[in-house]
Design a protein that fits this description.
Helix content is 37%, strand content 20%. It is an alpha/beta fold. It has a single domain, classed as Glutaredoxin, CATH 3.40.30.10. It has a 5-stranded mixed beta sheet, with helices on one face. A two-stranded antiparallel sheet has the order 1-2. It starts with a helix and ends with a helix.
């Protein structure tokens, strides 16, 4: 009986140690939550303009990280397009790719009738300021502060979720 208790204790300690090591690999500052400030970033948009965190100060913004090959992103982007169409310029919608070049995004946008502004990012530099893994990622902020829920692939943001969050953000 003592052997069994000892084995269980050793296994428990090993599992706790392993889970702590896994968490340690997540970059510092990643996985932002409601109440966190937007990190400083600057991106070049598809029209050549440059947009930074400072440009979002005092505004409601919807920041979306995506990859056009992701099925959840493919489902989310039409919702984001509808939000952009109905709430611009009241809410700034900013789509930032995760590891995808401009030509692939432009082709996907054309094939799917999207007109959203986007920033093509060939790496995870900007993405890693917000999260450690997973797309889509949708953040609604007001005055540079992330509010309400952060949506990813579980659950993806619905039109109703985003309308509610944008309206609430407008009162901040």
């Amino acid at each position: 009986m003592n052997w069994n208790k000892l084995r269980l204790t050793v296994i428990g300690v090993i599992l706790l140690t392993m889970s702590a090591c896994i968490r340690d690999r997540i970059p510092e500052g990643a996985d932002l939550r409601p109440g966190d400030r937007l990190p400083w970033f600057s991106v070049t948009m598809d029209d050549g303009s440059v947009l930074s965190t400072g440009d979002l100060a005092g505004k409601v913004s919807v920041i979306v990280f995506f990859h056009t090959g992701c099925p959840d992103c493919q489902a989310e982007l039409p919702v984001i397009q509808r939000i952009h169409d109905e709430f611009s310029p009241e809410a700034a919608v900013l789509c930032i790719s995760r590891e995808e070049d401009a030509a692939d995004i432009a082709e996907y946008w054309a094939e799917n009738g999207l007109t959203l502004p986007y920033s093509a990012q060939k790496d995870r530099t900007v993405y890693s300021l917000f999260a450690s893994e997973g797309v889509p990622r949708v953040y609604v902020s007001s005055g540079g502060l992330i509010i309400h829920s952060i949506y990813d692939d579980s659950p993806v943001a619905t039109y109703e979720n985003l309308v509610s969050d944008i309206r609430a953000a407008s009162t901040y």
